[in-house]
Specification:
GO terms for molecular function: metal ion binding; metallopeptidase activity. The chain has 92 residues and is an alpha+beta fold. It is built from 3 helices and 2 strands, in the order αβαβα. It has a domain of 57 residues: Cytidine Deaminase, domain 2, CATH 3.40.140.
């Protein structure tokens, strides 16, 4: 799975997907405020991208909101995995 730089427009999201012959996308963006609830703008963008993807046969699988809490959990999981721990220790 290729991680790409943040896109500024919906067109750029699909440009990368088409160049890499992707069949699906997972959208991710951050909310520095820590609010995990999607805004109305987030919902509209997700719907717009999902609709556009249907025309290109590229499925939008999810739209993840990244916050500092999620960032900390990901770092903790990485530490556990690097130390040879089991996935169950992720939330310990």
């Amino acid at each position: 799975m290729e991680q790409i730089a943040p896109s500024q427009t919906p067109k750029e999201n699909f440009k990368h997907a088409l160049e890499n012959q992707s069949c699906s996308l997972i959208l991710v963006h951050n909310h520095p405020s820590g609010n995990i609830r999607p805004s109305e703008q987030d919902k509209r963008l997700t719907q717009k991208l999902s609709d556009a993807g249907k025309h290109l046969d590229i499925i939008v699988l999810d739209h993840i909101i990244f916050t500092e809490v999620l960032n900390q959990l990901c770092r903790r999981r990485q530490e556990v995995m690097e130390s040879g721990g089991r996935g169950a220790s992720f939330f310990a």
